[in-house]
Each structure stands twice: as structure tokens, then as C-alpha cells.
Amino acid sequence: MAFLTLNRTKLQENFTYLNETFEENNISWGVVSKLLCGNRSFLKELIALGVNEIHDSRISNLAKVKEISSDIQTVYIKPVSKRNIPKMVKYADVSLNSELNTIRWISAEAKNQSKNHKIIIMVETGDLREGVIGDHIVDFYEQIFELPNIEIIGLGTNLNCLNGVMPSSDKLIQLSLYKQIIELKFNKRIPWVSAGTSVTIPMIKTHQLPKGINHFRIGETLYFGVDLFEEKIIPGMHGDVFELNAEIIEMQEKSLLPTGTLAANPQGEIVEIDERLYGKTSFRAILDIGLLDIDPKYLIAKDDEFEILGASSDMLILNLGKNPKGYKVGDLIKFNLKYMGALGIMNSSYVDKVIIA
């Protein structure tokens, strides 16, 4: 049986590291919980850290957060569809928006629910995902800031999420300038410039973050301790909060090459034959996890004594060579995970989720 563990101690230490970093730099922040896919036990662990603001891209996950702790400020972090606005307003205190009509619909629904809903206007800064074009931001704000039951609390942006555009001082200064222009023109205060995500954290350490950036939305670095500029673990943080354990369900010494007429497998792949391997064998282990749960490219082997050969829908195949560590059927193979791998595992109902101290 495959299972995923969340290490409570390592998660706490990562949270403490980030919280101290942000406090030292007078930055507010919230935790992005979408990786947890609404798992109630893991959400409780997150809230127990002392988190007071949780962000997610699924309304059902925010509903679970509110059930666990109604005091948590919940933030919906993608443009909401028209049909989901009633649910979003019910469970999210804040939402990120970039469409005029959508904000008008949110205003009407918030009034209908007798609630005040907070808005962060997303601004396009080059990655070409969601966001209002910068030249249009003043006109955009003018059309929404007096809508009933709506409070504009920030300008925000996303970088590195679609096309891999990295944050820079110039881009973030420009976002801060938009805030200043709006405040001067309309005599209104906008508390947040929410331009910080995990990819922006290294700019704090190198003193490149403009002072106007005062709000971060953090997921990946909390869970994986990673510096996304240099793609390495930040000193003092942990990269293995999550660990995948998969059981060996078959162990046999087999040929290194398939035999018979070759055609495309169910994934559309055709195996390439290396004639140098004819007649050679190795120990092959089959694990009880497959493509239905995770793409092998998102697995990070904790043992350098084996090679991942491939996967079918429900099985992962390893080449153990001569099996120097003596693995046998029933043994567990452990993996660290990349972000998208953990997301796939969390979204799989076939892999158990376990909390360890």
C-alpha cells in the first residue's frame, strides 16, 4: 500500500522560518493551501501552526477551512466563474479579480448575502495569466471602487505561474507605483501590494524587494523549503515535509529489454531498443503506485541505487541493478516529491495520507 506522510515538525519549522522572515520585513502573508486538496487532517495541521489567512483556488477547500476555524481569513485566488459567485462570497472573505463584470456580480451577491467582500485587483506584469493591463488600471479602479459591499484592499500580480517570467525589482516597483497613483487620484487607501509568492522570497534575502511590496501568498516554499531562483533548499528549511512511501509488490530478475513486436504503449510511447543490453538482466521492482497517482518525473528518489524505468496506470517500475541493498517484496521505497507530484498524490483517493511527528 502506498501512503504519503506529512511531517508535522518539519512543517512547523518551515512555517516559523517564513513567519520570522516576513515579520522582520513588515510583510503580511497568507498560506496557499491548494496543495492539500481539502484534506481535513492536513488543513487542521496548517491552522494549528498559527495561520490566520488561507488562500485556495477551490471553493470547497475554503468551505472546509471555515468549518474548522471560522476566524481564518479565506482568500479565493483565481478569477471566479459567474455560476460560482454565490458560493465564493459565502466562503471567501477576499478574492483576486481582473474582470469588471465579475466584480459587479460579486458586489450584487455580497449585498444579497449582507456581507462585505474584499477585492485584490490583479495586474498583468508579463507572465500573461490573469491580470488587468497596467495602462488600464486607473480606469478599472474608477469603475468599481464605489460599488456597494465591496472593499478594494490591494493590487496584486502573479509571476512565474504560466510562462516562467521571473519577478524583478522593476516589475514590482511598477506595481507599487500603480497603487500610489490610485491613492492620489481617488484619495483612497489601498493597504496591500500583494506581489509576493514563493518565487519572490529570494528577493527579500538579497534586499531587492521594493519596500512597497507588503503582502505575500506562499505555498511551495512552505511545503518544500525551496529557493525557486536557484532551485535548491533554503538553509534552515526542509525539503521533505512530504514523503511518499510505495511498497514493492513484485521483485524479479528480468531481461533489460522487452521481447516481441513493439508498438505504442497506452501512454503513446514506443520503447527504443539499445542493442548493447541484449542478454543482460537486472532486478526489477514493481511498486504499488502509478500514473493515475503521479507522473514519475515529479518523483525524487531518496536512494541513488535504483533507476525509474517507467510506469503504467497503477504500477511504477524500478531498475535495481544487482539489488545491492537487498530489497524484497513488502519493503517500502521512499521518495521526496516535486510540487506537482505532491499535488497529484494529494488529489488521489487511492493513496493514504498520514501525519507523523
From TrEMBL:
<feature type="domain" description="Alanine racemase N-terminal">
    <location>
        <begin position="9"/>
        <end position="224"/>
    </location>
</feature>
<dbReference type="Pfam" id="PF01168">
    <property type="entry name" value="Ala_racemase_N"/>
</dbReference>
<dbReference type="InterPro" id="IPR001608">
    <property type="entry name" value="Ala_racemase_N"/>
</dbReference>
<dbReference type="InterPro" id="IPR000821">
    <property type="entry name" value="Ala_racemase"/>
</dbReference>
<dbReference type="GO" id="GO:0030170">
    <property type="term" value="F:pyridoxal phosphate binding"/>
</dbReference>
<protein>
    <submittedName>
        <fullName>Alanine/ornithine racemase family PLP-dependent enzyme</fullName>
    </submittedName>
</protein>
<keyword id="KW-0663">Pyridoxal phosphate</keyword>
<keyword id="KW-0413">Isomerase</keyword>
<dbReference type="GO" id="GO:0005829">
    <property type="term" value="C:cytosol"/>
</dbReference>
<dbReference type="GO" id="GO:0008784">
    <property type="term" value="F:alanine racemase activity"/>
</dbReference>
<dbReference type="InterPro" id="IPR029066">
    <property type="entry name" value="PLP-binding_barrel"/>
</dbReference>
